[in-house]
Every structure is written in C-alpha cells, then in structure tokens.
Amino acid sequence: MTIIDLAIRVVAVATIPHNRRPSSSLGWLLLIMITPLLGMVIFLLIGSPFVRGRRQLVQERGDKMITSRAESLPDVPKGAELPDGLSSLVRLNRELTSLPMLAGTSHGLYGDYTASLAAMTEAVRDARARVYVEMYAMARDHATEDFFDAMADAVRRGVTVRVLYDHIGSRKYPGFKQMNAWLDAHGIEWRQMMPIKPLQGRWRRPDLRNHRKLLVVDSEVAFMGSQNMIDSSYLMPANLKTGRHWLDLNIKLTGPVVASIEAVFALDWLTETGDSLAEHVQQPGADPGGQPMQLVPSGPGYRTMPNLRLFTALIHRAQHSLSITSPYFVPEDSLLEAVTTAAYRGVDVELFVSEEADQFVVHNAQASYYEALLEAGVRIYLYPKPTVLHAKFFTVDDVAGVIGSSNMDYRSFGLDYEISLLGTAPEFVADLQQIADGYRQTCRELTAQEWAARPRIQRYKENVTRLMAILQ
Question: Helix or strand or coil: residue 383?
Fold first, then answer.
C-alpha cells in the first residue's frame, strides 16, 4: 500500500496542476497527500470542472451560431455613450461569450417574492406564440401553482411552452415526480438539465449544474435574476419550522437584449434535447433605443470564466463606491484581491451577506474571508436570520451595475452555468443602489472587534471549509 500511495502522490503532483488555478491545485494536492487513495478517487469523480464530449461540441456549435447572427452588430449600440474604461470590458465580454452589448428597457426590479411570481405569471398569460422557462430549482406548489396554470392555459391557446430545470437542483423537493407528470399531462415540453442517471449512461461530475433562472415570452419580454420557481421556503421542513425564507431579486426586460437571453435558452435546449430553436430565436437588433445592456453567460462550457473576469475588471474600475450583494461570497484569489485593493485605495466598499447561510460549508468558508475584508476596510452587513439573502448584484460607482444568477464564489465561476446582466445607464445603476439602501436599513454591521472575539472552534470550521470550497 505504501508503494501505491507514493505512486499516487507522484502522479498527482505531475498532473493535477495542469491548466488549473494554483489555489484549486493546492487544495486537491493537499487532499491527496493526506489520503492518497480516497483523494484520487474523489478527484477522478469530480476533478474536471469542464464539460466534455457532446456537450462541449454543442457549446462550440452554439457559440459559432451566436457569433454569426450578431457579427454585423457593433460592440456597443449606436448612440450609446459608455463611461470611461467600460468599452474595453464590453469587448472582453463579447470576445469570451460572442454576445455584444444591446439596447434594452428595464421595467423594474422585483425584490418581493410574491410580486415577482405574479409578474412572471401575468407575462405567460399574455403569451401569443412561445414561452421559454429555465430554472435551477422548480416545483409546483401553492406559491407557483398560478404560474403552472398559466403555462397550461397558454398551451390550450396554441402557445408552445418549453421548460428546462436542473435535475439535481429540483429533484429533492416535494412533488417532484408529480410535477413531471403534470407537465406531461398539460402538453408542456420539458427536459432536465445536466441529468445524473448512471443506469442510463448519463454521468458527469455531479456538481456541474445549470444554475440559470430566466423566462422569455414571445421573444419580447424576459425575466432574469436570482429567483427560482418554488416557494420562498423551498418547501423543506427545517425551513418551515424556523421560518426561513429566501429574499431574491429579479428584473423584467424588453428590447433587443431579450434576444441574448433567448439565445442562452436555445443553446441550453439544444444541449439537452438535440433540437435547434434557431428559427424561432429573435434576431438581435441594432435598435438604439433603451439602455445599454450586455448579457454575460458563463459556466463549465466556457473555459475562460467570463463572469469572474467581468466582476474583477469592474471592481478594479471602482473609484468612489462599490456595493456587493452575494449570498455566497467565497471569492477566487483575484476577486478577493480586487475587492480589498479597492478598499485600500479609499473606495467605500460594502458587502451584504446573510447572517446565517443555508449551507454549512459555504457559510463557514465565506466567514473565513471576513477578517481580511474587515482589515482592508470593507463594511460587512449581515441580513438578519432566518431570512436568506439570495439576491445577486453589485454596483460600481454610479457607472455600472450587474444583476443575475451568479454568486461570487468558486461554484458560480467554475462549476455552474450562470447568466449576468451588465448595465451602464444611470437609472439602471440607481435602481440597484436603491435595493442596497433598503438592505442597509435592515442589516446590522459586523465590526472587527466582534469578529476578533469569535470562538476558536469557529475559526477551525472556517479554515477546514475554506479548503473544501476551493476543490475544483
């Protein structure tokens, strides 16, 4: 066994660091050095953060299609004036994702869970031709029943309704099998994203997930953000017992930018079904009206981590203020450096997180960064438990804002399919800042003195879970 252990260690040192970030390499190597055989087995099961084979080929095919459909469009809508330094970021995003900046109109942010569900339901009830739904977690329950009924009514009117939901992200919630039967019974086309079904030969790294949340109606109206299609308690007994609910943020959009969101759905549909929706996807237009917006998809199909590069570059652009809301803040090294450097430069930096996250590992791994953040001068605001602050957005000065499904953690940068929306219009940024202002009134601020007095056992949990979080 000693010879086997030694061989595993030697092979690991020579192979694991290849094309992998140093922090991730060190995490894997530490695990394998401590327990060679088990560590190598785990690495072989979940060591690759990218999709391969057919999924990789479909991603490449989709990227080429998106590029060809938008090749006649400029990087920035005609007549749009971007703040200094942002034109190169727009070009960066297009280079990594093929999507240009387009015009779009925001019809408001939805920070109220019930109001957001009602607005999406109304949009489906008004559908004339097509409804596309893509959710990480989806369940038919008392909160979402009206939305499901609206989809069924749409089918009866002759509307094509297509639904994608993440297999692992949805299967644990009550009524999963009944929901599938209900969708079939009402003529709704549906597929599971990233299914893990070994007996059917469908296997990949199980924590590669599709975390996107979006709705597109008639190629004209779109919703996106952090909210899943499920009750805000996620129907779990422990949450119901403690009164835990999720607080989310969605945005409603119209205009040419909807074509980008629809293209993301079409690519995911093609990946899961093999069926192309290209003839039904709106051709992106050069309409100069509306606000400048750019959709940035990311995930294991993109080896360049477009969301991480955008976030880091934008944060380095901050001159006066930086406000971040992320339920799971476990930053990659470059992002942590960008945030703390901004604070050291004199930028007013604030971070909104939950006082108590819903996941033990993430909660403690996130807490392991508080000391460095506080030392740099970052103000950390804790949203009171039992609410889980699940909104995902940030603003840089008064010049740019980002909203979407992406957390600021290793999972969202490397393992989860995400979408993020960059906006540069003053009113777009102001709307996001107004949401942050409301959070600030509800939260309590974590002080350096309070954090320094935490128990030793808490420090131990932080250190262990921090290592676990970087295994990619």
Answer: strand
- For residue 467, the surrounding DSSP H or E stretch is helix 456-469
* Per-residue model confidence as pLDDT tens digits over 68-98: 777 778 899 888 889 988 999 999 999 999 9
> Residue ranges of the alpha helices (H) in 126-274?
145-156, 167-171, 176-185, 237-242, 257-273
Q: What percentage of the chain reaches a pLDDT higher than 70?
A: 90
Residue indicated by tokens 């989809």: 151
Q: What values do phi and psi take at 397, rounded to 5?
A: 50, -135
d(CA 219, CA 378): 41
Q: State the pLDDT confidence band at 51, using cuts at 50, 70 and 90.
A: low
pLDDT exceeds 80 at position 38: no
**What CA–CA distance (Å, rounded) separates 298 from 308?**
9
What is the mean predicted confidence (pLDDT) over 302-328?
A: 95
Residues 121, 162: Cα–Cα separation, whole Å: 15
What does the block give as tokens for 199? Answer: 């007996």
State CA 316 to chain mean position distance. Answer: 21
pLDDT averaged over the chain? 90
Cα→Cα distances 385→239, 356, 388, 442, 452, Å: 11, 6, 7, 11, 21
Contacts of 118 (CB under 8 A, 6+ apart): 146
Beta bridge partners of 324: 351, 394
What is the rounded CA–CA span in Å between residue 183 and residue 162? 10
Quickly tell me which residue has 């109109």 as its tokens: 105
